[in-house]
């Protein structure tokens, strides 16, 4: 057997990244602190990767794929030259300077450096590498550059380009250049503009790597056969592409159930909303949802009346249904038939709309500021601006505390929501 000294092993492994993985298998340090390893092989200080200690694996079980996987899992990307505080400015691809390391195949540092050079920050690169290990083995010149150029030529640039890459890393490893080009142009022909394509692919990652001819196109044709206009379908794909992601068989079954189970005819304006509900609820899920409503005193006919008027309500959670029943039925004495005929009352937020507006109506009644107090359903279904104009602003002088309390509550809620986003 040939025995290598540990110093010689260290020297060799410093220039051959894959040996670092083998060294981590056979020469594990006694300490448990993660060891910082610089994988740059071109003499330039490059990305420093954090390799966490891993369990010992027998040498014969290693393969090229598993080595690539271990190279990526547990890494923390931290290039001093491109820190988070000074991320590189996105540039057009033709201006990106390629280092010598970019010409070498399967160089992890060249991939990381290239992604940062086109504008991705440390956290984005780290997330992409950890979730898609094969990305580290990509050839920058032959694989990554051609696909980035396709995206740029199509019209994605700057932050838009970065957003598409960061949210769809699979297109860099699992989709060929020609396939990517074909998908983009097909999507543009369906959605009408580059802007619509950008919005859609951000929300539906599958659009750039799944087969559009076996999913999106046949599902569009199915919905068209039920009378849904091209304009409404285009808006739905842009806003919620998930409703076209399933197998056409499931889409067909969902459309049939809208008519047969919910009783919503295809000519109804609610048919598309019914499809969205049926797409989200399998047969067993729908049965469980009916049982949920029945536990709170609803009959099957009550549920169907509600579903025909607002299919969305079939998707509300048990917690939301319970809070709505407690308030409208137990506190205000509303009949279930009343709620079934006005299902929008169940979809509104209790904290942001129902309770603040109910408080306004109480003040108006107690101070007798209006001769006729509006009904609960009227007050709750008005838009925010119309509600303020009708029941808050006119009484600012007579009841300043009413205006301040309601306006302040809405202001606080708005700031909280923006903070969460």
Entry keywords:
421 residues; mainly alpha; 3-stranded antiparallel sheet; globular; disordered N terminus; disordered C terminus
Shape: globular
The biggest beta sheet is recorded as:
3 strands, antiparallel
Radius of gyration, in Å, reads: 29 Å
Parts with pLDDT < 50 across at least 5 consecutive residues: 1-104, 411-421
Structural class assignment: mainly alpha
Helical segment count: 23
The H/E string reads HHEEHEHHHHHHHHHHHHHHHHHHHH
Strand order of the largest sheet: 1-2-3
Round the mean pLDDT to the nearest integer and report it: 77
Q: What is the CA-CA span between the terminal residues?
A: 61 Å
Strand residue percentage: under 5%
Total E-strand runs: 3
Q: Please estimate the helix content.
A: 55-70%
Folded structure, characterized:
Helix content is 58%, strand content 2%. The N terminus and C terminus are likely disordered. It starts with 5 loop residues before the first helix and ends with a helix. Strands 1-2-3 form a three-stranded antiparallel beta sheet. The radius of gyration is 29 Å and the shape is globular. It is mainly alpha-helical and 421 residues long.
Furnish the topology, listing elements before pairings.
Layout: H1 6-15, H2 17-26, E1 35-38, E2 48-51, H3 64-72, E3 77-78, H4 108-117, H5 122-131, H6 140-154, H7 158-167, H8 170-173, H9 177-191, H10 194-203, H11 216-225, H12 230-239, H13 248-260, H14 271-280, H15 283-295, H16 300-309, H17 318-331, H18 336-341, H19 344-347, H20 350-366, H21 376-381, H22 384-391, H23 400-420
Antiparallel strand pairs: 1-2, 2-3
Helix pairs in contact: 1-2, 6-9, 11-13, 13-14, 20-23
